[in-house]
Specification:
The complex is a heterodimer of chains A (300) and B (335). Chain A contains 11 helices and 14 strands. Chain A is of the alpha/beta class and 300 residues long. Chain A starts with a strand and ends in a 6-residue tail after the last helix. Chain B is α/β, with parallel strands linked by helices and 335 residues long. Chain B contains 12 helices and 5 strands. A 5-stranded mixed sheet of chain B has the order 2-1-3-4-5. In chain B, helix 5 packs parallel to helix 8. The chains are: A alpha/beta (300), B alpha/beta (335). The A-B interface holds A 51-53, 70, 73-74, 76, 78, 80, 82-86, 98, 101-103, 140, 144 and B 168, 171-173, 175-182, 335.
Chain lengths: 300, 335
């Protein structure tokens, strides 16, 4: 698979803050790359440099082997984290406006159908709901039939249903072999959509790879989850005093136990007379990975 | 209303305002500068109520009229006699006196002229010969309309471009456009042309509407008038682009645009003639596009002046347009 974007040693500083500090990676054609990190990790600054909106202090970005140029602008689709559209114009007029800015364009009617804009095509953009608005902004990012699409936290603030609808749209785009660079702090979104993820913190890459590879590389266990009850804590303490095969993490209303041997763990819990009526077993997630790598929750 | 929410919003808004130091500074400095400017322009001799042009100044106080308070006596060169008479016609001068010939000119429709005539008669000027200004009487409204049209253009041009582009920058519209192949020049040109034709269309409607409703003097060429207003609007739109170039805060933009528009509104001869103002203020006024628009439009509409007469005004507007446009384009940043 050939590389569409090559990023080498990017640096960006704002006053005393090193927002991006020596970031390098490659994006393969047709891939969906996820940039993950908590607020302030440097992912938006990184993606804005990739979009040629911000200029790096140091480092280089190449699109198809050349510096970011007019060809890149013509072939890139961009959806910012927050964008206002001009007041008092309708969805269709907005699409037409942006379409007229590019030499190569998508079929507008097909785009309207793909992004499900038909019901509010003649509404003013200022009067749209959050989900509708994100779909319009995605459609605007696609008006030039781009071969690389940047989506900066596209589902932030959307309700679960709107998020899932949006994911379906992104799956459709992926089917057309488009390259996607997605920033998000939703782990389930990254897991659902991305072929490769880059985890950033403090402006640096702390890990990168496919979600499955990263999880299997860092974990070989599962998590047993129990709801807290009145006597659970005392029973867990006595369990911990014995030779216990699990590591136990306490949360506000539940307890998680990480183990590589579920059968053994369940036997130990039953022996300690702990009720398993609320028990859930789950695989490791990217949230766990982030916690493992940085020692903090992703969504802070 | 929930007061807690109200106070939270109020506090947040106050903080936002106070922390925008440039806007805060302008909000304090702007009224201060306006007050100081007007204090300078209208203090001392400039408080005079009446303006009298004098040809051949008296060598001594031969009549007490010349020592009357609150009259501003303006020395008129013999060569400017015709122009001065025209100014009496247009109420820019309340009276014109020729000391050697013992003659005075007043406009019969001018209340100020009537008062001055009475004062002159009672203060040693009984023997002076009255000269009525001949020709069509110019109402104040006729005199006012060319400037009002220009002033309307000024607000539309400055705020319609300056303020709007700053709002686009603030809410991210410019950032989104920057991500497209659109160039800054294309964007700015579109803003200028869009605003220019809108202003010309609106001015035409106002012009026709005023003529239908009250009727006014239009002695000169419509083409010349179109040239003056089109070039004038272009220069003021270009002026607005300078504000639009970098400013990120709407409050800062508002402050700057007010700082540009208010002095122009009062010192470009829209509401009153500049004759009575301090010579420095008159010179300063020549730096404002609105002064040239008002002067040129007024001589076209009232005196039927031709292209050669308004050429200096057109040249000034053209030079200003080029300077403002270059500055606006060179300084422009999307973010």
């Amino acid at each position: 698979m050939s590389s569409i974007l090559q990023v080498k040693q990017l640096h960006k500083q704002f006053d005393q803050l090193k927002a991006v500090n020596g970031v390098s990676f490659e994006v393969d054609e047709g891939m969906c790359l996820g940039l993950l990190g908590p607020n302030g990790a440097g992912k938006t600054t990184t993606v804005e440099m990739l979009e040629a909106i911000k200029t790096p202090d140091k480092g280089s970005i190449q699109y198809r082997g050349a510096p970011l140029n007019e060809e890149f602008r013509n072939n890139a689709g961009i959806m910012f984290q927050s964008t206002a559209l001009q007041d008092f114009i309708t969805v269709r007029e907005s699409l037409e406006l942006f379409q007229q800015l590019y030499p190569k364009v998508s079929d507008l009617e097909q785009l309207i159908q793909d992004c499900a804009l038909g019901d509010f095509l003649y509404q003013e953009t200022a009067k749209l709901s959050g989900g509708q608005r994100q779909r319009v902004l995605l459609a605007i990012a696609l008006v030039n039939d781009p071969d690389i699409i940047f989506l900066d936290e596209p589902t932030t603030g959307l309700d679960p249903q709107a998020r899932h609808n949006f994911w379906q749209l992104i799956h459709k785009i992926k089917q057309k072999n488009k390259t996607i660079v997605l920033t998000t702090h939703y782990m389930d979104e990254a897991y659902e959509l991305c072929d490769k993820i880059i985890i950033m913190d403090h402006g640096e890459i702390i890990s990168q790879g496919s979600p499955r590879d990263l999880l299997s590389e860092h974990f070989n266990d599962v998590v047993i989850k129990l709801q807290k009850s009145d006597d659970l804590e005392s029973k867990l303490m006595s369990l911990e005093k014995q030779r216990c095969s699990m590591s136990i993490t306490r949360h506000e209303s539940w307890v998680e136990m990480q183990t590589s041997d579920v059968n053994q763990a369940v036997k130990q819990l039953l022996a300690a007379e702990i009720s398993l009526s609320s028990m859930q077993i789950r695989e490791r997630t990217l949230d766990d990975l982030f916690l493992e790598l940085t020692g903090k929750e992703l969504r802070t | 209303m929930r007061w807690q929410r109200f106070i939270s919003i109020l506090k947040a808004r106050d903080r936002e305002f106070v922390r925008d130091r440039s806007a805060l500074a302008w909000n304090i400095l702007f009224p201060l500068l306006i007050i100081l400017g007007f204090a300078y322009a209208f203090t001392g001799d400039q408080l005079d109520q009446y303006k009298v042009g004098v040809i051949h100044q008296p060598e001594n106080d031969e009549i007490s009229f010349y020592s009357t308070q609150y009259i501003h006596f303006i020395d008129i060169n013999e060569l400017e006699r015709t122009t001065a008479i025209d100014k009496v016609k247009r109420h820019q001068l309340d009276m014109l006196l020729d000391v050697d010939e013992k003659r005075y000119w007043i406009n019969d429709s001018s209340p100020s002229g009537y008062m001055l005539e009475k004062v002159l008669a009672g203060s040693g000027g009984e023997g002076y010969q009255k000269q009525r200004v001949q020709g069509e009487q110019v109402r104040y409204v006729d005199w006012l309309i060319p400037g009002i049209l220009g002033m309307n253009m000024m607000f539309s041009a400055l705020f319609g471009v300056g303020y709007v582009v700053v709002r686009y920058r603030k809410n991210g519209v410019l950032k989104r456009l920057k991500a497209t192949p659109l160039s800054a020049l294309e964007f700015l040109s579109a803003q200028v042309v869009s605003r220019l034709w809108l202003i010309m269309a609106i001015t035409s409607v106002v012009f026709i509407g005023c003529d239908l409703l009250i009727g006014f003097s239009m002695a000169g060429s419509y083409l010349n008038l179109f040239l003056v207003y089109a070039l004038g609007a272009f220069s003021m739109i270009s002026m607005g682009l300078i504000v639009a170039a970098r400013v990120k805060s709407e409050e800062m933009a508002g402050g700057l645009l007010n700082m540009m528009s208010w002095p122009m509104m009062f010192l470009s001869g829209v509401w009153f003639s500049l004759e009575g103002l301090h010579p420095w203020v008159q010179k300063l006024a020549l730096l404002f596009p609105l002064t040239h628009i008002t002067q040129a439009a007024r001589v076209i509409m009232l005196d039927g002046a031709g292209f050669l007469v308004i050429l200096p005004n057109l040249a000034a507007l053209l030079v200003m347009s080029v300077i403002f446009l270059l500055l606006g384009v060179l300084l422009f940043r999307w973010e």
